[in-house]
Amino acid sequence: MNDTIIIIAPIEDIHSRVVAQYIETDFNCQALIWDNANFPLTDQIYFGIDNDHLDFALYHKHKKYGLQNIRSICVRRPRTFTISKSISDDHIQRFCENESRILFKGYN
Questions:
Q1: Which terminus of the chain has a lower count of CB atoms within 10 Å, N or C?
Q2: Are 13 and 76 in contact (CB under 8 A)?
Q3: CA distance readout (Å), 74 to 5, 14, 57, 86, 89
Q4: Considering the entire predicted model, what is its pTM?
Q5: CA torsion, points 19, 25, 29, 33, in degrees to nearest 10?
Q6: Cβ partners under 8 Å of residue 54, min gap 6
Q7: Alpha helices by DSSP H, the chain
Q8: Nearest to 64 by CA among 18, 37, 32, 96
């Protein structure tokens, strides 16, 4: 059942909060305001693809939002990803930043 609409925006974004309330009231589905700045530090994304299968899941606050329960994703105000400061090697830090960016924006 597709019962969640994900809004990518900072949690304090007032417009996103109003839209989320409207979605939950008028469309009877859950609205999740997700701040992508939490990725990959505290939130994770799984994306898998092969010849016969496509899978996606967002793990946020110990809850899984998979393709089977996501109706749509609205990109309102995406922010920069947060890479762990414990990664001290500059090359690995850049690799993590690039992989996170490519996941959202693709190769360009």
A1: C
A2: yes
A3: 7, 15, 16, 31, 34
A4: 0.85
A5: 30
A6: 48, 67
A7: 14-26, 90-105
A8: 32
Which amino acid, residue 59?
A: Y
Q: Which residue has the tokens 């589905």?
A: 29
pLDDT tens string 20-43: 999 999 988 999 999 999 999 999
- Integer-rounded Cα radius of gyration of the chain: 15
- How far apart CA 20 and CA 7 sit, in angstroms, is 8
The structure tokens listed for 31 are 């609205």
Residues 39, 66: Cα–Cα separation, whole Å: 16
β-pair type (54-60, 44-49) = antiparallel
15 SS3 class: helix
Are 20 and 12 contacting, i.e. CB atoms less than 8 angstroms apart?
A: no
